[in-house]
Design goal:
The protein is of the alpha/beta class. 38% of the residues lie in helices and 25% in strands. Bound molecules: adenosine-5'-triphosphate and magnesium ion.
């Protein structure tokens, strides 16, 4: 087993009297893609919020590269390299694809307002954007306005923006929701192209995708870890079957 990049220890969360996470222990190894699945309301998004610093756990600790980061907020964690994707798009529709990507790269490199100045640095980021675009499904379309892309393509551009700075840890909450099969495959191809440099936690209700793509799978049910293992182990796991998989994917 590779060393843990992220370690969640005894994580509990509650909202009022509703306990949504109960003593979750979960390690994410450097370089792996961990699938996080479970029924609606199981606590998947709540766990990603705690891992990314968007909310604090009621109990438990979050460690990243052996450092306790439980008390660090989301922006400090982002600077350490923990990147969380969002359902809503962060794209500027009037800007071109290459500008959206270039601005995102520049912002990550130089702080939140870096895009206001530093034309040489922006030029460098745009060159990097061009190279990323040339190796992606947006090849040849870099100058098109992002707003002209379909919904699915905008989600794919959003994913490319999240992956571009090669964050050490990427937390993806249903990145393929609402995408066609082809677009979901394109999203996975983008993720695969970053594999090796990025570790990812992937939340999805698309079991085919999770079982094909992930190295390990964690099954959450009613705020508890019902199963954890390789796709084969989870497929055979009785608790996982009962909790979520039904007759199996
Ligand atoms: N801010 C909040 N205040 C109150 N209850 C919340 C809050 N956030 C989440 N919950 C509740 O916590 C439980 C877990 O929600 P969560 O969004 O983590 O589930 P999920 O596994 O991501 O579900 P889905 O698959 O539908 O996205 C649900 O019962 C939800 O209603
Ligand atoms: Mg959710």
């Amino acid at each position: 087993m590779k060393p843990a990049l992220l370690h969640l220890r005894g994580i509990s969360q509650s909202f009022g009297s509703l306990q949504v996470l109960r003593g979750i222990d979960l390690s994410i190894a450097a370089g792996e893609t961990l699938g996080l699945i479970g029924p609606n309301g199981a606590g998947k998004t709540s766990l990603l919020n705690i891992a990314s610093g968007f909310s604090r756990p009621r109990a438990g600790r979050v460690c990243f590269q052996e450092r306790d980061i439980t008390r660090l907020g989301a922006s400090r964690r982002a600077r350490l390299g923990i990147m969380r994707s969002f359902q809503s798009s962060r794209i500027f529709p009037q800007h071109s694809i290459r500008h959206n990507l270039g601005l995102a790269l520049r912002t990550v490199r130089g702080g939140a307002y870096a895009w206001m100045g530093g034309s040489a640095a922006l030029r460098e980021s745009l060159e990097q954007a061009d190279s990323l675009i040339a190796h992606s499904l947006f090849r040849g379309r870099g100058d098109a306005p992002a707003g002209a892309l379909s919904y699915g393509e905008q989600r794919l551009l959003d994913l490319l923006i999240s992956l571009a700075p090669r964050p050490p840890l990427l937390l993806l909450d249903e990145p393929t929701a609402g995408l066609s099969r082809q677009e979901a495959a394109d999203a996975m191809a983008l993720l695969r192209s970053a594999h090796g440099s990025s570790t990812a936690v992937l939340v999805s209700h698309d079991l085919d995708l999770i079982f094909e793509y992930c190295d390990r799978i964690a099954v959450l049910n009613l705020g508890e870890l019902a199963a954890l293992g390789t796709p084969e182990e989870v497929r055979r796991h009785e608790g996982a079957q009962r909790a979520y998989l039904g007759s199996g994917p």
